[in-house]
Amino acid sequence: MTRAYIPKEISWLSFNERVLQEAENSEVPLLERFNFLGIYSNNLDEYFRVRVATLKRLSLFGSKSKSILGYSPKATLKTIQETVLSQNERFERTYADLQSELRKRKIHFVNEEHLNASQTAYVRHFFHKEVRSRLMPLIISKENTLPNLTDDAIYFAIRLKNTVSGKKRFALLEVPGPDILPRFVLLPEEKGIKYVIFLDDVIRWGLKEIFYILPFDEITAYTIKLTKDAELDITDDISESYIEKLSKSLQQRKKGTPVRFVYDRTMPADLLKTVTRKLNLRPEDVQMPGDRYHNFKDFTKFIEIEGEGLSYRKLTPVRHRDIQYGKSILSVIKKRDVMFYFPYHPYDHFIDLLREASIDPYVTSIHITLYRLARNSSVINALMNAARNGKSVTTVVELQARFDEEANILWGNKLLEEGVKVIYGVPGLKVHAKLCLITRVKGDITQRYAAVGTGNFNEETARIYTDHLLLTSEKKITNEVLKAFNFFLANYRKDKFYHLLVSPFGLRNKMVMLIENEIRNARAGKEAYINIKINNLTDGEMISKLYKAADAGVTIRLIVRGMFSMAPGANGVSDNIRAIGIVDRYLEHSRFLIFCNGGDELVYFTSADIMPRNLDRRIEVTCPVWDPSIRKEIKDVFDIQWKDNVKARILDDTLSNRLVDPGDSKPLRSQTEIHSYITRVNSRSQETTQE
Description:
The protein is an alpha/beta fold. Helices cover about 40% and strands about 20% of the residues.
């Protein structure tokens, strides 16, 4: 393992701590703090399903596992358990503090034991009308086995007791998910005070009505939650189609091995013992005691409450300087490159482009990669409309987009019904590139327009993820985007790429060459620097190269949102490396690379993180930026983020996540400042155009 390397699973926990810090931060609006609790909880669920599950699999290899991974999975699992339990204490403390803050705002949580007469009447009506018919309990006995518990759902482990005879029985009941019933129920307001009750407590209130035929007068319910191994195990059976194999693997996921069991710490010992035995949990499995409520991810969809200072002030998307409503977007792209920066620009711009292409009589075809899609996708609607209008539409739908596989199968089928050609990815390589190609033929002139981006074609996530999307008619780019789609159409027919850097064919080698070039320049006494903004940086080879570059005198500045396996500040690590991570209202998702190159700067943006999977096992596209104004904008954005002294944390070997010290500088919150910057740049350009 390379020197000063932090296991990615540990660095991920440090990232999630930065999310938890936002929930703890009293400067963050109250409802936003609840939202960060929800994000932290949802992140942790996925972490256990994927990363902890993978470590548990690797640990089965015994001593070989360390040579496979580079560090001990068993030791890492132990550190994870300790870290998560420690963070959970902070989480519960924060939740209690937030409830107290809500009460100051005249918003009170109540449970089934604290309802007054009018609230009881409301809960009774809601329970009878909406809830009761959805509750189907299972009596636990020695003879029966528990059903296959749904991963990500919460259940009640129920203890029924006859206080006279002392007789006891146990039962299990699934709490309906938020897609069926709201997790939070707003009760009638009284004397200016709003009251909220968990759905869990509405169910607790009505349990006697569910078990009325049984001779028990004391019924108590305790929340449990099981997280399972979510990695797909797709066998190489060539007699089955890829989609059939994936569908079978999704069924296997539902029966996955448990990796975490969370339970109400007040649960009686006899009930806990029965449940864990029925679930076949072993002592080495992660068992986490918690409070009364689980699945805090539902706080990302908390009830809407109006009030001063409860939520962030809205940052309205700014119309791009080159996009005039009612005028052709394709004609603009033909003249110049256009770079959108979501959510600072409205995603409607891209939807408008697809709509225009779908009805333009000279557009003959649209090609696009689809990874994660919005629930009610306008992108899909535009593509289907293009097919109805006689365009040839080809979509590359990635079936292995984790946790979106089933949705993508459904979208694929819907597209097929409309006459769209659907390619289900590339066997053995996950298609993570963000590409769209529009071909327009007028007479004997063929003109292509490409969209190359850092984020999915998804209008929902585009409201909360920061991403760049380049629109260009530059032939050097459009011809190579066409080559990429030809590769998808004829798997493994590899073309040469001279401008786009395409994983797994050339990105790793090119990045090594770019870093080595900076090393040579630094040793020759020339200015040398590397500025990288990325989501995750864990690749051992690239980390070694960056350490080598820093030792040679290359100045390296890194902005990394998530996993970060480097350790600036550790003994023997050059002072030329500095790194920060930013967590704020938007999820930092755009990725770009800037190399000094002896004064002739090279600027790229990319769909790839610097991880082995992105460099070696995925189709990713890294694109050069040649337009001077767009290059300047990307560099300005990096510089603004680098100066952040409100939401930026220092990333170093201690994993302390210390906030950047502003010193004598004015507070600078990069996301707010970038919105102001984008507003200024686009307003100025529009004024110039009008003049």
